[in-house]
Amino acid sequence: DSGVTQTPKHLITATGQRVTLRCSPRSGDLSVYWYQQSLDQGLQFLIQYYNGEERAKGNILERFSAQQFPDLHSELNLSSLELGDSALYFCASSFRGGSDEQYFGPGTRLTVT
Amino acid sequence: GIQVEQSPPDLILQEGANSTLRCNFSDSVNNLQWFHQNPWGQLINLFYIPSGTKQNGRLSATTVATERYSLLYISSSQTTDSGVYFCAVAFPNDYKLSFGAGTTVTVRA
């Protein structure tokens, strides 16, 4: 158990819908990262937050957004869902960022039908 | 170009065999981690090893930062070692982990 929690574990929804994925970092960690794992793109970085503020952005679509709350949990919002958004979404946390070890949550498996 | 390259892409082992997985990276790194993704999809941290050598039970890893590669050794493999092994690095002034494509290991009883 990495100490990072994610909910829900599985999500099945239809095209055009909107979903919210939730992540709680390890106790004491200030940074939260979101990654997407799809069959064709592999594991890709989406976005990072540090102590409530966005720090880095990767290949995140405009239909996707995220935030980190004062209690340091984070939410990833996916809207206008398309079939291609079906993937495993991971949250990771680290104490600060960059060179710190990142710990991954169990992931949320999203299926868009 | 490819920044993190893993080899081999696939590995089939008989239980009890030893193996070596390799990760090459294109620049100096601040962070290098090895993960095991089990059949349920969970990413398990194996090593945080931007340089040097570490051992944990039957697994060990070595990173030679000056030559830009890392090796993961699996000794006396067991069926529970099956899964995908990922190498991931963070380059200087970068906050994210960049992942290799992984090595799929199948251990047969």
- Measured between the Cα atoms of the first and last residue of chain B, the distance is 38 Å
Order of helices and strands of chain B: EEEEEEEEEEE
What general outline of chain A do the C-alpha atoms trace? globular
- The low-pLDDT segments of chain B are none
Shape of chain B: globular
Low-confidence stretches of chain A: none
Q: Give the biggest beta sheet of chain B.
A: 6 strands, mixed
> Which percent range fits the helix content of chain A?
under 10%
Can you summarize the main beta sheet of chain A?
7 strands, mixed
What is the subunit organization of this protein? Answer: heterodimer
Measured by DSSP, the beta-strand proportion of chain A falls in over 45%
Report the count of strand segments of chain B: 11
The helix/strand class of chain A is: mainly beta
Distance between the termini of chain A: 31 Å
Radius of gyration of chain A (CA) equals 13 Å
Strand content of chain B: over 45%
Percentage of helical residues of chain B? under 10%
What structural category characterises the helix and strand content of chain B? mainly beta
Total helical segments of chain B = 0
